[in-house]
Amino acid sequence: MDYILRVNMTDLSVKKENVPDKYASLGGRGLTSHLVLDEVDPLANPIGPNNKLVFAPGLLGATSAPTSGRMSVGGKSPLTGGIKEANAGGQAGQYLSRLRVKAIILEGAATAGKMYKLVLSKDQATLKEANDLMGLANYDTVAKLTAQYGEKSAYITIGQAGEMLLKAASIAVTDQENRPTRHAGRGGLGAVMGSKGLKAIVVDPTGTDRADLADPEAFKTAQRKFLDTLNKHPVTSSGLPTYGTNVLTNILNEAGGLPTRNFSSGRFEHAEAISGEKFHEIITARGGKPTHGCHSGCTIRCSGVYLDKDGHYLTKEPEYETVWANGANCGISDPDAIAMLDRLYDDIGLDTIELGNSLAVAMDGGLLPFGDAEGAIKLIKEVGQGTVLGKVLGSGAAVTGAVFGVKRIPVTKGQALPAYDPRAVKGIGVTYATSTMGGDHTAGYATTANILSVGGSVNPLKPEGQVELSRNLQIATAALDSTGLCLFTAFPILDMPEAFEAVYEMINAKYGLTLTGNDVVELGKTILRAERKFNELAGFSKQHDRLPEFFKTDPLPPHNTVFDVPDSELDTVFNF
Amino acid sequence: MDYILRVNMTDLSVKKENVPDKYASLGGRGLTSHLVLDEVDPLANPIGPNNKLVFAPGLLGATSAPTSGRMSVGGKSPLTGGIKEANAGGQAGQYLSRLRVKAIILEGAATAGKMYKLVLSKDQATLKEANDLMGLANYDTVAKLTAQYGEKSAYITIGQAGEMLLKAASIAVTDQENRPTRHAGRGGLGAVMGSKGLKAIVVDPTGTDRADLADPEAFKTAQRKFLDTLNKHPVTSSGLPTYGTNVLTNILNEAGGLPTRNFSSGRFEHAEAISGEKFHEIITARGGKPTHGCHSGCTIRCSGVYLDKDGHYLTKEPEYETVWANGANCGISDPDAIAMLDRLYDDIGLDTIELGNSLAVAMDGGLLPFGDAEGAIKLIKEVGQGTVLGKVLGSGAAVTGAVFGVKRIPVTKGQALPAYDPRAVKGIGVTYATSTMGGDHTAGYATTANILSVGGSVNPLKPEGQVELSRNLQIATAALDSTGLCLFTAFPILDMPEAFEAVYEMINAKYGLTLTGNDVVELGKTILRAERKFNELAGFSKQHDRLPEFFKTDPLPPHNTVFDVPDSELDTVFNF
């Protein structure tokens, strides 16, 4: 039987609870968002004892469904002040599902100055003192935990950023090689974990089984059908496995939508030097892995392993968002510097998108020149060291911009924007503006139809059609984020009806349900409504569904367009 | 004829405009708030070219009405993101009225890296290049300007904080001795002035006359009646002149409402050492002035002149809010240290309330110990020097708290709270929560009936009656802030019907109007409605009319009360 694990950091109690009926058909983001709405006061201090942090694997967890091991982490965001779901790969999601953990609800707060770890296995769910891990970065934390709990466990940890309660702190999840390279990155949930005094969760799957299936044959059929679509669609079968997500650098640069030097241009003259093609070449030449899955069961394998010049492991293959935020957006064109920043973010426990924006905003404010790779690395090391400047950057782009008196601060709802300029990719601009999550590309990835001709085609430079595009994607994504499936399965889902069918057929076969496509859409809507409700109660109004002023006033080269989707249209995104 | 001066910093034009009819009967805050609502996009970047900064003397400017020289400065606040009126003493308000300037509207923004001054006299209204003033603190700026424009002009200037666009930057106004000690302090309007590239306004009253009066005899009668009430009421005739505003330290400490060590207690064990009585003793012993008016025509004279140990001028007599913010709230009990901080704030151009809170929050976050006066002075010097830490503190308590991961951050709508703990002075808690200005005591100074038994008496520790008290005071204050009269005239106005009568009788006699008491109340309501409208369009909802969570959860010693005015009652404050 699946259960909810309620961990109270104030009295250090750990309780198994039955899953209330209303949560039975929810998983991942659907579950975290509903639990946060139901249990967290929207006006609670995000780093106070009344916020909660919820970990939930997806509905298809612990099955053979490809890429089904993603995990949602939810809570009230210290960065946005609204609801947050941050989604991570790595091994922990699957292992939690194998342990039959439907969700972990972390609540209360430990006595200041004390740190704990939560140890989960088939036989125990125990909080243990972990002051020995205090102040450690993620790699060292995981090394120490692995020595004690073994290579076969997964580890969910925070680095120094989470302990310092920084608004851009992430939560790290170990990958198949026990490296803390997979992060619930956005919105500062690492600070929530830190505020509660929890340094780590150990998830030991020893002796556990895959999920029980109501109809094993039907599941197998649906699973194969789904796998077929992943193997057929060009993005999931070829583009992503070969060049990783960073296949996008050249594409976005060509489209004039690659935000460069703090969103002052849509083209970076050194894009080629940091492209996926270039990274592929470097990784291959040094004997790294150009293709690698972020968790077992992944068939897309968009990641890789990046070795340094001497052939030693440095970090995972940096994602497109990382390459952009710390490359083009900082005017940096050195792949090794970007890879080093990626390593530092994973180690200190920081959101790579937010910190790349912090750097770019600080550069715009004159702290260091655009393109200063060495300076950027030095600054990010300062975050781990806890210098004042490091803490400023680790507080995100909005705080950094305030401190340095910067006029161009690319954030919505306090969260920094990802790698697509909303003036040249207007569908994603609608998502940035209206998402319950703040500036977030994954919440409604309109780059599909705007740039990639996936799921149709909508001119990225015109305002027409963007709201409908973003709306449909936001609904679909909310549902998909509940399954545990990787967001990249959306490529076949958007283009191939049988891929979408296979998703709910797998869920039906696992749980003995009779969901239809409409039910899945309805699930997405229900989740968005819950998130909007929380945000409304936290004080968000339609004026928060807007991009910063400069996107409307400053034309973006090379197309010299501004963001011109009318406010009145933005206000219709959630009319469903 | 009164006129509006429109100063465009983009094209460096200065235009005199007729006063539109709708603004004819408005002055001070009524005029700044209506102009901001009418002319500023509520979603404009506060430090971008589309924000405007409005200076407006009050309706009774350039008359013999006592204390009538106050000036309102309005705009969209970089600190709160909402509308802002900051009110300053000093000579400039009267001189602007004598020049017949109804309002200055500063708009656009100069080319980055250039600074200007606006020179106003009977014969000119000219923008002049002022790069020679760049980087100067207020005292040096004024010294340089005085050398050129004379002792008889008034100067409105910004220090380094405004140039650095810091969210807690103030706008300084010179007093009768040409010292930049009077500030439009709150909400970061100094950063707005800095963002436009305006370093100073020179206001030369040479050759100007007092305002024309429609009925000089009636004015004289009303003026004498008003003066009588000021001379009779114990607060304005004795308490304030003798000990200054700091007469409140002992009173609030006794009441258990003096926020101590970042709002962790309502009593400070060293209150006596920083009391008004003690400052009076020090000032008198050193040969300073224990009584001094912030502008000519002031009969209350609540200020003074503070000399250092060697008998040299250091600063004005620090106000109660300064003494509290940098004294009790920082655990500091050294009057000389507080006076030095006051001097530094005036010089760098910083809001003393906001910065005292920045310091206290930083102390709570472990940056330095509570009570470290020398450390505090060093830190505030860093703001002027533009170090990263200095910029953090100069960005206000909310940013400082974010950077240092502090859980107890006493701000509403982003603005730090003044010197009355809302758990022990609940009427002012209602004002903090609901004011259009963010945390602001002057917006509805319920300390009157809560603590001072002025204008009735309402138990400060109970939730009952606080909403009505705050509502009435907020309405009255909005009207009073439009007259140019000092807020302290409210003491007789609240207690003596003839004082209130005299106010509108003076206005009637000046303008040939027939206003009644009801009209004045209606004016207050109209102003609040305009401000609420702007804030609503800027994204504020009822959830922003709340105090931070800890005031509701953490009891305050010694009364061990929490803030318990129900949210539903807070939502009725503006039901009028």
Assembly state (oligomeric): homodimer
Task: Tell me about the largest β-sheet of chain A.
Answer: 6 strands, mixed
CATH fold-type name of the largest domain in chain A: Aldehyde Ferredoxin Oxidoreductase,  A, domain 1
Task: Please report the number of helical segments of chain A.
Answer: 23
Task: Return the structural class of chain A.
Answer: alpha+beta
Shape of chain A: globular
CATH class of the largest domain in chain A: Alpha Beta
Report Rg of chain A: 22 Å
What is the CATH superfamily label of the largest domain in chain A?
Aldehyde ferredoxin oxidoreductase, N-terminal domain
Number of domains of chain A: 3
- Distance linking N and C termini of chain A: 35 Å
Strand content of chain A: 5-15%
Q: Which two chains touch over the largest interface? A: A-B, 38 and 39 residues
Quantity of strands of chain A, as a count:
17
Sequence stretches where pLDDT stays below 50 over 5 or more residues of chain A: none
Instruction: Provide the CATH architecture of the largest domain in chain A.
Output: 4-Layer Sandwich
Mean pLDDT rating of chain A: 97
Strand order of the largest sheet of chain A: 2-1-6-3-4-5
Percent helix range of chain A:
25-40%
